[in-house]
Amino acid sequence: MFTQETIAVLHECSERSVAGNITFPEVVGKLMAVGIEQYHADLYRREITYYAANGDSHMESESGLDSKKFNANAVAAALNPNGVKEALRQIQHKEIDYQKFLRGILSAGVANYWVYLAGKRAIYVARNGDEYVEWFPGAR
Questions:
Q1: Which of 62, 104, 119, 128 could serve as a FRET partner for 71 with CA atoms 20 to 30 Å apart?
Q2: How many domains does the chain have?
């Protein structure tokens, strides 16, 4: 069971990501500090589930995302790895915020993604299970 303090950090990371006032490296640092090993973003449902190494989990709704823009209908039918790479490049260079990043990966066919903090990678998954793996900058 997560402590209230840990849940507050998870909530803060989700809220600030949607608001566009926290970077991915900052999120990673905060999550690792409270023992998060991985998380899963469900773009259909606008939810993020955080997992600790002991199996504890906690789901946060990204209710700040407009359900008219962020839903299953927004996910392209096929994975476009180049579209995912471009959205990643733009957010890494601070050219776009989190919501624009999400719109970019949705239009590139991403339905959900997993972030593995210890493994230093994210796996972007399409409707049919096709995937694109992105290593954290400097991980390889």
A1: 119
A2: 1
